[in-house]
């Protein structure tokens, strides 16, 4: 089998394809042929050494594939079953071992964009955990053309909220517009705080989702409405700086932070959250992001695009096929 191994952290060039022996199945595990492995910012952070991982390691937590063989144990999947996973380290490979309780069954006819669930489940916990969104709410979504951002825009609109979307280019904002965003802000050209306040007649945003970090979070907090909440769930531009508590006190506003792994460590909770994403796709109101695929050999280029913020939608590796 082939997989990517990182011997030393650093630039995208440290992602090297290596031939290794196929792993042996143990009880409670399935050997899965990887159809597609999702690429996420967490993979970039681990490759850079910002988030530590024991070396050598194979990146990737997410994928879609077909069960080749299953070990002994209850709930063993049948060979040929199509499955997804979002919390199985080492997915940049053409075959992987996945514990039974980490497998998420998906329909055979699902496109790979629908089966890549990491961003969808991330959006699900963000939508459900920090506010009960009402039709009168204003929701500000940063990086609205990204994988998580696209799901957040659609989900907030599905719940009736008014959505303000930000992105770094007009092309990316057009993606958000097509998904239903009401107000578009190019934050590379203008202050999004001023635009948010202007668009809401001084009210501000009731809920802000921010995965950009250092470049945006202080303004995200300043954009809050009374009793609003700003949620930090990533730091693409670096970790957010200190928050001025006085501004929060006067508005009775809040800041919060979250990681998807805090909400999927329990397998039954993970499946419950994934099932809500799958229902949204099947019901037709949630459209998965466009997926741009790369071969294993082209993983360095995919990482360069993601960390340079030159991509929109989802990036993924096709271990057994051709890039698109």
TrEMBL record:
Please give the InterPro entries that the UniProt record associates with this protein.
Answer: ADH-like_C, ADH-like_N, ER, GroES-like_sf, NAD(P)-bd_dom_sf, QOR-like, Quin_OxRdtase/zeta-crystal_CS
UniProt keyword list: NADP, Oxidoreductase
Which PROSITE patterns did the record assign? QOR_ZETA_CRYSTAL
Instruction: Note the Pfam families from the entry.
Output: ADH_N, ADH_zinc_N
Describe the location of the Enoyl reductase (ER) domain by residue ranges. Answer: 10-317
- Name one molecular function that GO assigns to this entry: zinc ion binding
Q: What Gene3D superfamilies has UniProt attached to this entry?
A: Medium-chain alcohol dehydrogenases, catalytic domain, NAD(P)-binding Rossmann-like Domain
Keyword Oxidoreductase belongs to the record: yes
Q: Which GO terms describe its cellular component?
A: cytosol
PANTHER family registered for this protein in UniProt? QUINONE OXIDOREDUCTASE PIG3-RELATED, QUINONE OXIDOREDUCTASE-RELATED
Q: What is the official name of this protein in its record?
A: NADPH2:quinone reductase
Q: Which organism is it from?
A: Terriglobus roseus
